[in-house]
Design a protein that fits this description.
The complex is a heterodimer of chains A (about 575) and B (about 900). Chain A has about 575 residues and is of the alpha/beta class. Helices cover about 40% and strands about 15% of the residues of chain A. A 5-stranded mixed beta sheet of chain A has the order 10-9-13-11-12, with helices on both faces. In chain A, strands 2-1-3-4 form a 4-stranded mixed beta sheet, covered by helices on one side. In chain A, strands 7-6-5-8 form a 4-stranded parallel beta sheet, sandwiched between helices. Chain B is about 30% helix and about 20% strand. Chain B is built from 30 helices and 33 strands. The chains are: A alpha/beta (about 575), B alpha/beta (about 900). Chains A and B meet through helix 17, helix 18 and helix 19 of A and helix 2 of B.
Amino acid sequence: MKIAVGQGSCGIAAGAQKTYEILENRLDKAQNELCVTGCIGMCYLEPIVDVYDGGQLYRFVRVNETAAEKIADAVNSKDLSAAFEFKISEDDEQFLKKQTRIALRHCGVINPEKIEDYKNSDGYKALSKVLSSMTPEQVIEEIKISGLAGRGGAGFPAWFKWNAARQSEGEKKYLICNADEGDPGAFMDRAVIEGDPHNLIEGMLIGAYAIGASEAVVYVRAEYPLAIRRLKNAIEEARKNGIIGKNIMGSSFSCEMRIKAGAGAFVCGEETALIESLEGSRGMPRLKPPFPAQSGYWHKPSNINNVETFANVSWIILNGGAAFAAMGTENSKGTKVFALTGKIKRGGLVEIPMGKTLRDVIFDIGGGIKNDKEFKAVQMGGPSGGCIPAELLDTVIDYKALSATGAIMGSGGMVVMDSDTCMVEMARFFLDFTAKESCGKCVHCRLGTKRMLEILTRITEGRGSEEDIDLLEELCRTVKDGALCGLGQTAPNPVLTTLKYFRNEYEEHIKEGKCRAHECTALLKYEINPQMCKGCTMCAKKCPVNAISGTVKNPHVIDSGLCIKCGNCKSVCRFGAVEVK
Amino acid sequence: MSVNLIIDGKKVTAREGQSILTAAAENGIEIPNLCYDGRVELYGACGLCTVEVEGNPKLLRACSTKVAEGMTVHTVSDRINASRKVALELLLSDHDGDCKAPCSKACPAGTDCQGYVGLIANGEYKEAVKLIKEKLPIPASIGRICPHPCEKKCRRQYVDEPVSIAFLKSFVADKDLEGDTYVPDIEPDTGKSVAVIGGGPAGLTCAYFLRAMGHAVTIFEQMPKMGGMLRYGIPEYRLPKAVLDEEIALIKNMGIEFKNGVKLGKDFTLDSLKAQFDAVVVAVGAWNSSKMRVKGEDLQGVWGGIDFLREVALKNYPSIGKNVAVCGGGNTAMDACRTAVRLGAENVYVIYRRSKDEMPADPQEILESEEEGVVYKYLTNPLEFFGENGKLTGALLQKMRLGEPDESGRRRPEPIEGEVEKISLDSVIMAIGQYPDLTGLEELEATRKNTIAADETRFTTSVEGVFAVGDATNKGADIAIAAIGEAHKAAVIIDRYLNGEKAEYKKPYFVERDDSSIDFSKMPKAPRQKMPQAQPSVRKNSFDEVNFGFSEEQAKKEAMRCLECGCHDYFECKLIAYANDYNVKPVRFSGEKHYRNTEDKSELISRNSDKCILCGLCVRVCDEVMGKTALGLINRGFNTIVEPELNKPLAATDCIMCGQCVALCPTGALREKSALVKSVPVSESRAESICTFCSNLCPVDYRYIGSSVIRALPAGEKGLLCKGGKFGVLAYKDKKSASAEEYIEALSGLEKYSCGSLAVIAGGRVSAETAYVLKKYAEEKNAELLTDADETCAGYYALNKLGFKPVSDSAKEYEAVLLVDSDCGLSAEYKAEFSSLSGRGIALNTPYSENGTYFDKFGNERRQKAFVKPSAPVFYEALNTLLKNKAQDVTAEAVKAVAAQPSGEVTAEDIINCPVSFDF
């Protein structure tokens, strides 16, 4: 049997290395083959162990040490049913079954550390096809037919950028892959690099061929050490196999490829800031125009695409642009990967064809809200995106339709929120992120986001005034208009959308001093219901600031002047007597 | 290829590839920007240059958007203005400093106190007077009597004592009256006429400024002479009328018609003026004394304060007897009691219902009156004046105590029941206030206080074309400088009115620091200069002026005490200019603000991060133009800051002190060391010239005021200047150049020499312009052109090209020699040659002007003036003035004549390697 242990960052975090060790020590290696694979996308079920018995796949989930031992024993005894208690439930199987995987097609399936595995799954066939039988123009045409749009967030047609770089005059051209995935809650790119690095390399080489680049750079954030290690390994393997370097696959096309580890600035995900950083300068965006296609890396024509964009390329070449375009809606073709997180039952990576609804993703695939609470909103596109409220749950996943709500498709972050989420606090959280990540170059972003954050903070702390909402809206408008790069231009989106859909929450904070989600501690008031309190003294003992007084068997009282709203009393009370207002 | 487009409705032709910003600028449409400079790469940080292009929904940055055929651009719209305004407000919400000094802001007339104090410190007296007279036309008078709100705000008081701003003003104004008195330029006649009713400080000021703007002005005054309360309310011992007369004469001589002894309602009416003049200004003042509503007020011997002072001023000295009481605690009370002393009263009391601490009068006045024998009866209030046969004999005084503070913040006086005091008196002078006489002005809407209701920003009254200012309006009587401030502002508005425009006074926006945020503890102390005064025993018997005025030495010392609070970049700062253009209210966005409070002071350049707007120009010009990386950006977001590499002090980096960063800094964040003795923010004059420190012939922009060169800035397309060019002017820091007039006077001594008997000898550091005009001068005079410069000298290149011969080649003896910009010490032969010229030469601009040995041998008394560098702009101007065939553009002609390398050929590398060095 072949046993594959999911060892993406998520699997490792859940303990997959220990699982692997146990299997390695316990399995009868003469009979079985143990290997690693990337993240299959069901991060909430990690560690995951896939056992292939002939053609049949048995998937075991949440494989802790005991489970690993039992599975090893079951494999050794050739009777997997002994371990079926750890098998994935039918419900959970729906998570994958309802997806359509193109970019992620090899993730969690093949061994990312072996080029043979990739080759055996049609790997590098597209590149071979391109180099042997297609002109660069034909490649671009195929991509144009596919309708592939940049998956980094802006959704700009990939062929157009390729073509612009192709048309740009210049001996030296560069192809750059943007793997500086920085949105909080987004991990699509990491999964691709960790689980299928050759697919990225192949997509990039096809792109490099199309635009005429002789050098390709992958800009990966340094916070992705595993991705960097696997990609490095894959580049080395590819080079050894004549796939990177001079005369690739015996053709006249030569291209070098290297990795640049980014130092962790969110703004370096903005293409011109990324170029500055690549050149060794401070990561600050450049004015556009000129666009990188005219003047990019070292002021040479350059093309930058996101990881997921490149991950679709080899499939398109092999299956034809039309097959890709057959999926999706009129203006959004193919599939899109989402990182589903937040208050969701099944969090992980979801790839679906464009045209599905948010409801499909959140309820059908994601299984709905954790603890069956009420769905409130979903934040699309991270700090640059916006929230979409429950009443728009049937919005179709399509660039245009999503933009119409005020949110964006974004790179694929999808953070689900329930009734315990305060929308003002959520906007504040994202503003805090963008304000800190602003590079400081342009006035609107450096100071505009700071002032917006201050206003939001004052509202969440109960110090807001009614004019603050107008001021926020004015700042949102001017920052959107005036900021230099995408970071600043989109930073107001979380505020604008929450103001659009949840204005009443802002008003409640300001006028009534109330946070309905009970998230804004400054607005909370802890009180003990004297009818419910049994006088057990537990709360008084746990109170870190001695704000609770009372005698045994008599109702206790919280001194709101001293209370720091830590919530200890509420969590220790066995009688539900502590009430938060 | 040219591109046609429309900018703000104007058809414009631009070059292909050009940005909207530069295309607009070339067509006279200025688009605001703070981070653009043609020499460095586009940056796009400030976001001010946004424009709208039809068909594009976004706001576009004009700096980076290229022109396109058929494009329609709007540089002004509500959306654009709102965006710019917010950007400016955001910038200002994190900008710390004082645009203007507290003294200047405290002055109701907005006189630039820091400016004129600084100019006095530098000995630039004429410039100081000019600056004062931009706001205040009678400084010698006002300097003497002003209660100086400026000094109350002067931050020097937190170190020791405030700067004596008012007396510095009268010092410099007196000096100006001594001779060569400043007279403002008068615009060509506009054909418009204005009548001013009232010749007091407000009326005179309004007339002064309106006349300077070219309008015909007539002042109607009921009293025999002009001056108003300054003449008839302020005693002679404080303000000698001779001084006032001189200042008023200057105003009259501007061509203002004075009509004295004419009374409104009797000799003329408002209607008659309205019919005759295009505008009328009512500045009638407040000439009635307020009553106390105390029994016995009508007795003979009870005087109104200003009535009493007026009688004295008219020399109708009233007989006031031996025992005199003055009621009130203001400055009029001080004037009254001290006048009473001088009229011979033996016992003079001041009756004031509060205590000394609450007294509004100037403490100095209280002190001086006490020295003169005035007795203060604090915490007393007259209950009744009594008398015999209708004549005052005494007063009953109620004793008071202080209760809770009232709205004014002063503790409210309350009577102590039963405690009264009776005193014998011959006279009482009630100095408790004054109000206007509105006879003849009934047509104008009045306030509840029975003053004229005037719009506070437009100075208009209820009658079209009639404006009102000063004590007669709104809140009533105030100090003279307040009336002057209003009058100046009103003059500007009236000028616009006469042009058919509607305008209103807009209080300018300033960034200001909180006094409490400044650490004064480490500032060295230097006591305030004492005003020399007559002895009390002498002065109490005389109306002669009490104060003798500062000596020049005292004035300079006192002026040096200024802490220089106001931003030194105020007149150049683009941020504050835009802030006022866009009516900012940054307080909307107030939040966390950086108070780094650290000024990185290198010897020549200082940086203040609290004023930095992160436009990046300094970082970029250093890197991109000079190829250095002395400065860089660190941190992110709100905490982004410009710092020298590795956080070292600037001097420890590879900085070559070329000053490019300073030149490009749009705010006061970067400053160069000033070549002035006392650095002072002033509106500088500029002279574009050629740097004289080496033969690279770099264009330079000299900034000067009067005859003091303040600094040098790189000029020209490339804007390159080395440390020497930039900071060489500092080598002459404590020297002054002569003025153009002084040069002309000095040169006139050479008029009689010509035809080969005169030699013009230029030293090695003449500028190209000076060399050029010297050559023209020599040609006109038929003089020999010589130089003592060799290749090591800065000016050699230009001199050689213009045909100056080495001085050693000439064995000829000259009747006279003009020696310019030479250190006259190069060689023994040279010295010998000059030794024989005793008494027949004029040496200009030599470093030895004061104590050099050669000086005595061939100079005359004129050379005692410190004619030293950098005199180039002034000197070539003076010389050019003397020429029959004046050069139209000295710089351009000089460069042409010298056939200089075009400035374009000098590179940053030349600058970095420039051998010029100085000990500063």
